[in-house]
């Protein structure tokens, strides 16, 4: 029963706090790096590479067992609409 509470209520809150802390950390690092002369594009490349290396092991730790939805037109239209609004 305690695990169900943890996954339902505590885990999303913890993920939200971790995401916000990483945004604040990246903003602080960008400010320091840009004062030293690092380009915005290089910083974005490095931060995306580090994020990729950090998230890649999770693919093997938590494999997905669900099937992907079929790529029909309504599904692709929803993705396009989300990308347009985002």
TrEMBL record:
The chain crosses the membrane at residues 12-32, 38-62. It comes from the Eukaryota. Keywords: Membrane, Transmembrane, Transmembrane helix. This is WAT1-related protein. It comes from Turnera subulata.
């Amino acid at each position: 029963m305690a695990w169900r509470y943890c996954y339902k209520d505590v885990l999303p809150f913890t993920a939200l706090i971790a995401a916000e802390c990483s945004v604040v950390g990246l903003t602080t690092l960008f400010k320091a790096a840009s004062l030293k002369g690092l380009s915005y594009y290089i910083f974005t490349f490095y931060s995306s590479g580090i994020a990729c290396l950090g998230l890649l092991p999770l693919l093997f730790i938590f494999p997905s067992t669900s099937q992907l939805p079929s790529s029909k037109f309504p599904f692709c239209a929803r993705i396009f609409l989300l990308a347009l609004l985002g």
